[in-house]
Every structure is written in structure tokens, then in C-alpha cells.
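User: Hey, quick favor. My workstation is busy. Could you predict this chain's structure for me?
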Amino acid sequence: MPAFVNQEECTGCGTCADTCPVSAITVDDVAEVNPDECIDCGACVDACPVSCITLE
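Assistant: No problem, here it is.
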């Protein structure tokens, strides 16, 4: 299952995108995960400073 970003809690800081080893996350105003590219590693979950990312 790909990572899920709670869009209401995301601050758009980009830490998750910088941490993602396969560049599956883009950040405009908030982070968005491309489920086709996500490898379910959990790096973004651990890196998010506001804990708004989970693995479903």
C-alpha cells in the first residue's frame, strides 16, 4: 500500500519529498504521493515533522 498524506495536516515543508528514495512525492501546497512509484518503504512517515503521513 502506498503512503497516504493527510492533506489537512500537511504543511508542505517538502521534507518527505527530499527523503523519498524513489522521488514518488511531489509538493505544491501540500505533499502528494504517486502510488505507482511508491515502494512502501516508510521513509517519508519517519521524516514528516507533523506526522501527517501513514502507510495504508
